[in-house]
Amino acid sequence: MTLLRQQFTQALELRGFSPHTINNYILAVARLSRRYGKSPDTISDQEVREHILHLKSEGISAATCNLHMAAIKSFFKSCLPERPNPVGLTSMKAPKHLPVVLSLDETIRLLTCAVNPKHRALLSIIYSAGLRLSEAIHLRPADIDSHRMRIHVREGKGGKDRYTLLAGPVLETLREYYRCYRPETWLFEGRHRGMPMSPRNVDATLKRCARRARLGKRVTVHTLRHSFATHLLEAGQPLQVIQSLLGHRNIKTTTIYTHVTDRMMADLRSPLEAFTLTPNRAKEQGAEHD
């Protein structure tokens, strides 16, 4: 590791960034360095600007471009304090898309397509507790509180601990899984004993189950988290409760789930449904105005 990279890594660690974020920031700055074939501390503001515009021209999403800009700003602020924000980098406006959400029936179909007890327990706990992928694979057996029916999520996003729900059926699924696998260090261990299950393995498992369930939707691990929040909202749970269970710092993040859900849509009627539009009716209305 170069002295510059070590300095940047230590600065991010001192700021409390997660290992995943630190790795992404290091890779982003390394990509900038590779583009010009020189150390990032010798790259000019104009070259930084051209690099970001090049990323955008390649069709990279606004969210990913924002990550690169945040990484570059953090690098300059940490390693070159005299240039804390090259070219005045500001976040791009990202398009806001509604999250893909499964219905309750689709969710049950997906979970029942997980034949392996380990996979069924994993996907069930992600959905039923609204977990992020990184939170699920870093659960430990001791984090499951069967007495209070809670799950202790340690150092979630932003380094925050929280409690979330442990559903009764999921507890039974976990017990069946535990009898078969006897995990020790991590609740869901990977192929190597003592190591957590890899994100890629979880993603591949979910995709196989989604194909078996024939959902016809692009399903990711985060889709289960979105579905958890939406189903709670449909059941009448307050937004503040959902915010706490999901571990959102700001309730504005949670408001994405206030989109019109399938159940809400079924109960709505357009104002036009009170009228019957026919050609004769239209002529009568025209004659009255004449």
Features:
3 strands; 3-stranded antiparallel beta sheet; 290 residues; mainly alpha
Give a verbal description of the structure.
The chain is mainly alpha-helical and 290 residues long. It contains 14 helices and 3 strands. It has helices at 3-14, 19-36, 45-57, 62-79, 104-112, 117-129, 133-137, 168-181, 199-213, 221-234, 239-246, 251-254, 262-267, 279-289; strands at 144-145, 150-153, 162-165. The chain has a 3-stranded antiparallel β-sheet with strand order 1-2-3. Helix 3 (45-57) runs antiparallel to helix 4. It is globular and about 60 Å long. The mean pLDDT is 87.
Kindly state the number of beta strands: 3
The order of strands across the largest sheet is 1-2-3
Largest sheet: 3 strands, antiparallel
SS strand fraction: under 5%
Query: Helical amount among residues, as a percent range?
Result: 55-70%
Quick description:
This protein is mainly alpha-helical and 290 residues long. 55% of the residues lie in helices and 3% in strands.
In terms of topology, how is this protein built?
Layout (H helix, E strand, L loop, with lengths): L2 H12 L4 H18 L8 H13 L4 H18 L24 H9 L4 H13 L3 H5 L6 E2 L4 E4 L8 E4 L2 H14 L17 H15 L7 H14 L4 H8 L4 H4 L7 H6 L11 H11 L1
Antiparallel strand pairs: 1-2, 2-3
Helix pairs in contact: 1-4, 2-4, 3-4, 5-9, 6-8, 6-10
